[in-house]
Write a structure and sequence with these properties.
Elements: E1 8-17, E2 19-26, E3 59-66, E4 72-83, E5 89-99, H1 116-127, E6 130-131, E7 136-137, E8 155-156, E9 160-165, H2 176-192, E10 196-202, E11 210-211, H3 215-295, H4 298-304, H5 308-339, E12 345-348, E13 351-354
Helix pairs in contact: 2-3
């Protein structure tokens, strides 16, 4: 889930008919067995003026609840006065369940203003079962469960309740005032939800109520807005870091591809050299085969077989020996003829004169 995303986990309707009754779906599917999370004692009191809250201007409430595993959610909805089947003062209403806003371990925020239409629609369906004349509620059968929802056991967190008032139109999502009110309630639930577990805002200044537009509420709104802003910025920074890591990874991949391509080129060169060597060997083999065919007949080729190369080398060596022998004989013969030649002549004044060898002595 992203840092700013609104998810409705479930919904419920509740009211005092023959005791407090509730039905729900989603994470509130087991609401009828855990009606204490919908208890509003203030509406059971005889005095205080809460019974004067108009049906078409119900109180807007936020309540923090938890289950046996320690998971917490917020209930956001409308509550209005009614009477039970004996005529005693009571209440009825409807609500949505959403995740709590948090900054850790992972930032997660909802947009409560975006819930206005669904809050109004569910409440509109609920008040159809309210009898204006008797002020009683004919218990509706609005919400059906699939039977596959886990049986969560919700209970209200121990804490204080606060009653606020402000002149606003709680069921008109187009009013700027309503948007401002629900944002303030969200900010208060974010800042003080663990200690002030129930917040009720009405359009009537009931005894003991506080104005919603006080400094403490303004401070909570500013702190909430800042936390929400940081949560919205964090995913962008994370995305930039992810892109940077991706770029670094892409560079490493590109470097590896270059190395692979280089190895591929070297492999191709080796394959080309091997192919040329094989072609040269084939040509030499063809030449040797032709030479064999010229020197030997079929029977001889078959009988000599692999030793044809040895025979060829011996033949070539004998041929070279013969050539060197002939050259030696020719050189020796030339020396004998030179020894038998005429005596040397001496050139004297252009005439040739025979130089007689000296006479032998007696």
């Amino acid at each position: 889930m992203s840092a700013l995303e609104t998810v409705i986990l479930g919904q419920a309707v509740f009211g005092t008919t023959q005791g407090l009754t509730a039905q729900g779906d989603g994470v509130l599917a087991g609401a009828k067995n855990h009606v204490s999370i919908f208890e509003f004692e203030i509406f059971r009191r005889q005095g205080g003026g809460q019974h004067t809250i108009p049906i078409d201007q119900p109180a807007l409430f936020v309540r923090r609840v938890t289950n046996e595993a320690g998971h917490e959610i917020n209930l956001i909805g409308f509550v209005a006065p009614c009477r039970d089947y004996t005529g005693r003062r009571g209440f009825f209403g409807s609500c949505l369940a959403v995740r709590i806003d948090q900054t850790s371990p992972r930032a997660s925020f909802s947009d409560w203003v975006a819930l206005a239409d669904q809050l109004n629609q569910l409440y509109e369906e609920t008040i159809k079962f309210y009898d204006q004349a008797t002020e009683r509620l004919r218990w509706p059968n609005l919400l059906q469960t699939t039977g596959r929802e886990p049986p969560y056991q919700w209970e209200t967190l121990p804490g204080d309740s606060v009653l606020l008032f402000e002149d606003f139109q709680p069921r008109n999502s187009q009013e700027i005032a309503f948007s401002d009110i629900i944002q303030r309630l969200q900010a208060l639930a974010f800042m003080h939800g663990h200690t002030t577990t129930t917040i009720i805002a009405t359009t009537i200044n009931l005894p003991g109520s506080q104005r919603l537009r006080e400094d403490w509420a303004d401070q909570a709104l500013r702190a909430f807005s800042e936390a929400k802003k940081q949560a919205n910025t964090a995913p962008k920074a994370e995305a930039r870091a992810t892109r940077a890591q991706k770029g670094s990874a892409e560079q490493e991949i590109e470097s590896l591809w270059r190395e692979v391509n280089q190895l591929h080129d070297e492999l191709n060169m080796l394959k080309a050299h091997l192919k040329r060597d094989r072609q040269g060997y084939a040509m030499q083999s063809n030449f040797d085969k032709s030479l064999r065919n010229a020197l030997f007949d079929n029977d001889q080729r078959e009988s000599f077989g692999p030793q044809w190369l040895k025979i060829t080398i011996i033949g070539l060596a004998a041929l070279l020996t013969l050539i060197f022998s002939i050259l030696a004989i020719v050189w020796i013969s030339s020396g004998d003829r030179l020894l038998d030649a005429s005596p040397p002549t001496e050139i004297m004044n252009g005439d040739a004169a025979i130089i007689e060898p000296p006479a032998a002595e007696d």
